[in-house]
Design a protein that fits this description.
With 528 residues, the protein is mostly helical. It has a domain of 203 residues. The two termini are 37 Å apart.
Length: 528
Amino acid sequence: MTTNTSGSVLKAAWIIAVVTIVSKLIGFIRDIVIANYYGANLVSDAYYYAYQIPSLSLILLGGVGGPFHSATVAVFSKLIPSLSEKPQENVNKLYSTFMTASFLFFLVLSALLLIFPKQIMGIIISGGSEEIISLASTHLQIMTPLLIIGGIVGIYYGILIIYKQFMLPNLSPIIMSIAIIAGIVIAAPNDQKGYALAWATTIGAVLQLVIQYPNIRKLGFLWKPNFNFVNNPNFKEITELLFPAVLSSTVGQIHIYVDMFFTSSISDGAWTAIGYANRVFQFPVGILVTAFLVPLFPIFSRLVAENDYEGIKTYFNKGVGVLFFAGIPIIIGILTVGTDAVRLVFERGAFDENATFMVTEALWFLSVSILPYVFRDSITRVYYSFNDSKTPFIVAFISIVLKFLCNWGFISILGMGIGGITLSTSLVTLFNACVLGYLIQKKLKMDYKGLFLNLLKMCIAGVITLAVCLVCAITFDKYVLLNGILFEGAKIFTVAVVCFVIYTGLNLLFKMEYARELAERIKAKLHQ
């Protein structure tokens, strides 16, 4: 890979990272609006339970990086010799075959959802009441078109990225979030069953499809029903790529279904609370991981191609070290002012004090997964650089059993409630990180000693900082005479400043290079 090519890849990666950050921000605002109008109760639970099935197609299977997108890029990029010319007839025929097969497959699944919604939701939320099962079934029927749209959008994503049109595929989720926000604001005041939310979600998915179609047509891709499924080498290659990738994506969804099964027996609003806790968790952590791993992935791939294994170790330790360094203050923040943050962001309208407590409880136990989460996602990129998606899939598949056993122990035996669900998630994340970190040694001997020695120093600094921040938070509660948003905002800001100063200072004392680089950057900014 030439220097120019590497530079262009990194430039594209950073563009994608920035758009992803904007997308997460808009998605977070969408969640705030949903919480304001629907709170955390039976209606919101029904929507989120139902959404998990069509979201498998729209987000996991058809999203950027999903199986349909990946298979399209892998096969069609080899068949398109020039990006400046219209696709040849054989390419258009394969495109039509793939589109036809995807449409028929998801059409059959959609028909099953429309005919048997109560039976399907009854299995997933078996511990729920008849009312929530019935309501979730109606939501599922409304959102059924998302199944068909998901696969088609994934193919569109792949075509556009082949032609180096990176922005539109990554902007599409923003369009959906805006559509949901608009639909809720218009219809939610008179919506007692959450149907407006389900319809807005469906309309948002349709818009994702609509905004991409003109570009696909302009590139010269025309869908004409084609049933050439047999004795078609290129289509066979697509299916061979799709099958394991779909299985891998489905494994993650099975974890969610296991959680849904146990959560339905806890209380109304429990599943909504876990969903919001995940969103609060993903907002800083997801942005952090995306910002660092999107540009690192092509570097890993280039280094593997060049057999530069020492380079992989260096970049891995550097990237994961930065993620660890930034992740620990996030944990401290969640443990000290997590309740205040949830109250500040969500607690208004239908989202009451009880909902705040449920979300915070879930978030506390989820926060401890931040360190294994960033390690797992980072080491997975190394596997992908070696063209090995099989090992992460097998480890994730095995962890389904662990997830079920942890949920059963924490919920059914110990009666932990919402916290038990997210604690089991954290333990499963730790299991995946440890196993993947160990098995990668078969490909190259990673230098973990320096990485984890630095982590130990950061954790010592983190524990001391946590104690100081807890004292600060308690003192603030006792002596500061403010109310409402002003109190929550001032408290979060004060604790954040104390956390930053103490944590960075201790890491400078421990001679951590990440803290030194951060301090140098701040000094440079102040002297500008």
